[in-house]
Each structure stands twice: as C-alpha cells, then as structure tokens.
Amino acid sequence: MAKVMLREEGGEICFYIAKKDMEEMITKIEFESEEKWGGEVELSNGETWWIQPGPKKLPKEEVCKKLSD
Q: Which of the two residues, 69 and 6, has the higher pLDDT score?
C-alpha cells in the first residue's frame, strides 16, 4: 500500500508517489464515470495498481495497492 497523489493535467491523470519520487500517467482505468472512478489502473511504466472506486474529485490523495510490476 502506498499514499498516492492523483491530479488531472492536460486531460491525463498523473499518479505520483512522493516516497519513491515516481510520477507516471494513468493509461487505462477500470471505472471512468464521474460517480464511480478508479478500480484497476495501468500506469505508463506498465505497473498495475488498485484505486478504491468512488466519485472523481481530483486532485486528491489516496492509499493505493500495487497489483503487479
């Protein structure tokens, strides 16, 4: 589990982990509606993470779980 900062930048969603100084863009997302946003996401570096689905309110800080490298 990691604390992640999510923000929208130029139509793309930025996924930032301060402890790792890692910033990647979300390339795929399971749920994309304004009411239910999140689920399994794929990053531009190929990693897969889980974001608890909920309303899309960005920017926000979220605790996320890494599913695969």
A: 6
